Amino acid sequence: MIDNRNYIIAIALSIVVLFGWQYFIAGPRLDAERQRRLAEIQATQQATAPQGQGIIGQSVPGQVAPVVGLPGQPNAGPASPQAIASGGLTGFDRVTALAQSPRITIDTAAILGSIGLKGGRIDDLKLRGYRETVDKNSPNIILLSPQGAEHPYFAEFGWLPDVAAPVKVPTADTLWTQEGFGSLTEGTPVVLTWDNGEGLVFKRTIAVDQKYMFTVTDQVTASGGRAAKLMPYSGVRRVGTPTVSGFYILHEGLIGVFGDEGLKEIGYKQVADSREIKAAKVAGGWIGFVDKYWATALIPDSTVAMQPIFASQKSGLIDTYQTFMVGDAVTVADGLPTTATTRLFAGAKEVSTVDGYAAQYGISRFDRLIDWGWFYFLTKPLFHLIDWLYRFLGNFGLAILAVTVILKGVFFPLANKSYDSMSKMKKVQPEMKELQDRFKDDKMKQQQALMELYKREKINPLSGCLPILIQIPVFFALYKVLFVTIEMRHAPFYGWIHDLSAQDPTSILNLFGLLPYNPNAYIPAVISFISIGAWPIIYGVTQWMQTKLNPPPPDPIQAKMFAFMPVIFTFMFATFPVGLVIYYAWNNLLSVAQQWYIMKREGADVSFFNKPAAPKKLTA
Prior knowledge:
This protein has 13 helices and 21 strands. The protein has helices at 2-46, 94-98, 268-274, 351-361, 376-393, 396-410, 412-427, 429-438, 443-457, 466-484, 534-549, 556-573, 578-601; strands at residues 55-56, 103-107, 111-116, 121-131, 140-144, 153-161, 177-178, 190-195, 200-208, 213-222, 228-239, 253-257, 263-266, 276-278, 282-283, 286-290, 294-300, 305-315, 318-327, 330-332, 338-348. The longest helix is centred in the first third of the chain and has 45 residues, at 2-46. The two termini are 31 Å apart.
């Protein structure tokens, strides 16, 4: 009776864990992801890309989106942490927001967008090589959007005046003039100018390479005996808290590397609570925002000391986040141009591209823009192995299977020792059961008898665990690679799997596609785990097979719990990216084959459907 009661309690607790995990973690994440994708797809479908050459999109009458102002001087560049206003979500669609300023087209092989002459910001960017879904006709990913759009996200550059001797500098409302005509392309930079009418002429040169790196050079020249003290700045601003995937193994938020201080990863809530986080002034480093697959990062001149700041301010219900770098004041003398150069990375976190920029420009730890995690020394080499196998096999799914086989081969000696110990443990299960029954009222004598049994049979109970513990960091690193790298995004496998980074599209609720409806469209996210796909079920079967081969725990309640765990994990894995599910299922299957062979060789029972062995009578 007690065992049955405990068993019921154990099952009830397992169900609570499953529903709790789904309600607090997987469900909200799935709901947020659905809403984000729907909003972005709708916004992108409404938008039209800038066309033609040179200045486009003349201003239209109507409301102009509010802008952030400098302390003491409204609309004069970036905000201080104390003076950030969110700008709000104005209700404009993206087309209307873009039309608030004449624009210069950005048109390269990798990106499409525009620069607003009003403010001179880089605030409109789409990624040509990436789309919202696996459908080749789905909208391109929108990375940057202007003030007044649904989700403003943009980069700005310029000069801050000395408070003691203020002068007119370009602001968010400044209308720049383009020198000449033409779009910004890989081989043709654009030059913007503005005269403050008081003896200072500002020039901004913007160049872009064949991928995602902009180079922005701001120059100011004084004339007519005029002189001024100015501080160069660059910033990236994001209005509204973005939807994040919500996995603890991935950082999405604000990020930076500043000299010897190392990598700083700041969450949106952390900076919203603090309002301002400053790092020490440093020459060299970078600062920006990272999403799962996309990023923006400012890389100032490494020879100039800059003050990095993470900041946030709430306006109504909207939080605005900003990363920016401010340099020391420089004197602009009559006739002597003063320049400040900043690079802006805005694009996809492709490993080869990010590593290439780190090497090309000597950017310290720029590869950490990709969240390789604590096991960096394992994670990145594993990615390069998978990437090499992909180039050889032509399919990331096959590369995942191949690298799992390689890792199994590397760890075979350790696994052999572990499974050998498990075989011996399983062989003596009847004797262990008899000892437990004999000394069920005397736990000390029971433990002594078990130790004598282990000694006689030359069994070390820990030898089955230690090899597995050694392998955990490697397999966690592999899990990390499959989850965080963009190279796996929208990568197909075979059959019904067209995107390894998405959930298995099949469902047991429509008999895996035999019935003509999509249950995932009607099921609330909080119970989405009931729509189990084919691969999670395959994983569950392999997990059950491995559980059956392992020696059961001595405690009967623990044994029943372990027997029930494959079911729990099957439901949990239903919402995981299918690439991870395939990896775990394949890894389990290889483990089962390896364990079955070793245990068979040692004479242990390897039947999956055997009844519990009767206790073996031990001689006194």
